[in-house]
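MODEL INPUT / OUTPUT PAIR
PAIR INDEX: 1
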Amino acid sequence: VPLLVIFPTLFAFTTWLERKVLARIQNRVGPNKVGVPLTRYGGRLSLFGLGQPLADGIKMLFKENIVPRDADRLFHLLAPILALIPAMLVLCFLPLNFPWINDIQDSVKAFMLDGAVIFFFAISGLNTLAIFMAGWASRNKYSLLGGMRAIAQMVSYEIPLVLSAVVVVMMVGSLNANSIAGAQAGWNWFIFTPWGFAAFVIFFISALAETNRSPFDLPEAESEIIAGYFTEYSGFKFALFFLGEYIAMFAISGLAVILFLGGGHGPGSDIVWIACGWFLAKLFGLIAIMIWLRGTLPRLRV
């Protein structure tokens, strides 16, 4: 339950952060108006536009839900829900080091399973079904083309993504996510080894493709196929797709932190809150790189 509160909140903050960083890169201002009202006479505390994600969420919640006339209404409804569920489930397989998790019995901790890494990839692969369902059910040529592009890209890059993770699994001798993070205690992070750095580069590039991030945003190419597989989505259903993509970005970055960056290990990580801070710092470091790449790399046209 806490994850259902924490990660949507982090997602909202990340959307604001991405818009501000991209605006800075492109010499723009970015969101800076929506803030906290202070008086009945119009005063407000803008806080650099931190209220913008909340305003966007409210707008999406009450926006009209438009369904194409020829669309398969059942699958058109199920697709965004099925796209969000795997992204949320895989978070359970990451040892996130939040304080309340230590009070839960090991027998019900998903990341304590011996095959946690396998379950992560197996569940995340279910997202391809939802994407194709969205493209097919919309009865739109751009949506279908975007769905086919997404599936081809995700299936293709799944292989190097898994193989780069296998390198770490073979070195540790365990598929347990907690054991993999524990093997990197102190500064023994795998990224500091030659083989670990090479595997991390392959993993990160494949992760960009898996999450449809630039420069692998071909399934959502605005200049070619409008918005890809969610061209015909609006309102709350579009917000579910948007939420699923960002949570998937958090999940794949979290797995990279576990496999290569030592999880929550760092100076003072014996204290639970500091270990949690280390994990989130590494997580947002990888997400910042993804945002930076989007702002600097051009999208290749097919």
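PAIR INDEX: 2
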Amino acid sequence: MQPALGARSISLLWYRQDLRLTDHAGLHEACACKPAALLPFYVLDDRQFKPRTFPQHASAEEGLHFVSGLPKLGPWRCRFLLQSVHMLQEQLRKRGSDLLVMRGPPEARIPDLVARLISDLAQGDAVPGWASAGQPGTDLPPSWHVTLHYHQEALPEPADVEDRVHAGIQAAVKQLALPGLTWEMRAHWGHTLYHPDDLPYTAMADTVQSGGGRHVESLSSTHQQAGTAHEVSRTSSMAPSAKSGLGTRREGGVDVVAARLAAFPATMTRFRKALRSQGETPVRPPKPPLQALPPYPSLSSIQNSGSDLPSVCAAFDEAGCGPALDHLSSFLGLDYRSLPGMAAKPGSADMDRHDPRSSFQLSAGEEAALGRLRSYLWGDGAGQQGCGGAAGDQREANTPTALSNYAVSRAQASGSDASTHLSAFLGLGCISPRTVWDEVLKVREHLLKEGADTAAADCMLMHLEIRDFYIFTALKEANTGLFAAGGFAAREFTNKAPKWKKDPKLFHRWATGTTGIPFVDACMRELRGSGWMSNRGRQNVASLLAKELNLDWRMGASLFECLLVDHDAAVNYCNWNYFAGTGSDPRDRRFKTISQGITYDSMACLISAWVPETSHLPLPLRHAPFARQELVSEVTQHLIAQGITACPYTQQQLEGDVQEPQQHSPTKKGERSQSDCSAQLQGQLPLLDYPAPVVDPAAQLGSLKGRAIARRKAS
């Protein structure tokens, strides 16, 4: 509903997974109409701390009770979220505004906020300098227009919340029955690199058709939610709009997005091909940050409805979800309440404390995100320069940046620059993918001018597109196969949904990092103790759970959702579908976890840090502690193939035959006991206090030929 001519406007900005000022469509449009006041707010929804409930179609009863008590929002992401909200609040205050923080369901708190705002408008004291100029019998000025701006999210749960917020505001306004008031909810889109209105729907449908899928006519729709004091109108248009976002995902009970993306390609390769089938699909330029903002409304009643940001422990307890946090601690054998920073409030130094075993110390907020982007792309000297080529020009000549080794380093298991470490910022919207894309393009142009190789920059751009692929796939599959045990692969590929085992003890060993496969265990323990796991680690632990242990992939996805500091629901669940063989991967790939550890954690740095039981062993045995002689020899050859020739491991030691620990039969005449072998290999140290492997280690070691091929591809 457009405001009446001469109407005085108030803008509300609902922050969600978009905790930034740069490239924020909602903020720009909220300020574009020059409102009398701007009220930014954030609602900490207590339901985030509750366990995930799977949709009914997903057959949630099939063994998922193993993870039924784990919170969706775990302690690591909760801490990062609270810190990021705090940093956003500080940024807004520097610009003369503020961020109202509320607790509770958005569909209850936001309509109440709007009602309080309208009541204060009626009193004429909502905006400094604006006195009441009401009509006879009222205290309301002749015409007011209230607009609630927000960014949409990519899955049905937040979409349901949006609809309930709309219904709640409608009811609240109707109950107040104040004439001269109009209001609207305006949706914006900013979670993906490509705006949904810009996707090449015809090309994607043609790609699907040529790839064996069915052709579905693509749809493009926008939607605006609007209302008056007495009625609500919902409008839609089939024509794309550069101003509006994707709009509500349901209109008259029809899932608009699912219909719109019905022709979305099933594989990433087809998606990227479609993006370039009719020339380059445009990426909209990022919007610059606004340095001056409209005044923050002086509303005592609204200020009284706000609350301070809690500590992590208090957030769980105040939400009534303290038992969920305690259950997580009990399940994983780690008391999260006692960890540094968990009882501290956002903004305090204690909340920034990290586990010293972590190779990267992640700070929160938009400024940290932009700083990380600058330093990764341009070098450490760019930290305070602001995004742009000028910072890069000032770095010393021929000084390599972290980006220059991205194609190889991104797969490494540890290291401060083994990843861009931007995923957590992207997940909470502390930085937009368009901002990252734009800055990488500047680096690419700089490299071209210098005659340098652009492969690393191109690789990083490609991975931003991969992220889009997963998000749009989640939009397409959210109500069908995204959360189903068999995923959504069967409709496109010949993969058959596997029959998952129900083995809580086996899942517990995987979750706690006690599988007996050091690389997998190190990755899982790092996740448990820091909220982080490398990209390569995620692929390997997922492959082991689903392909080797044959356990329901959704249990792993739920644990990841709980523990990952960079969890993004669409990316996480699509990735798990992919590596479990139930998603968009047409190949039934299996990861050789010992070989992968040798390749991506060659010196066992990650293993030594997180699996200290093996740290005293010779290098080959850190990768395969209970391997027999022939397998240890093969591990050694794999290490040599990786270029590691200085292994502290002698031929005499290699002759020791390390037996599997589960073999406790009496020693036969002429055989050496396991303790004898252990003493020979470990220099008379006690028997290794490390569990037996859950799978045959020999099956987790690929061929040297395969390793050589993988190494050539990596380089």
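PAIR 2 NOTE: The radius of gyration is 28 Å.
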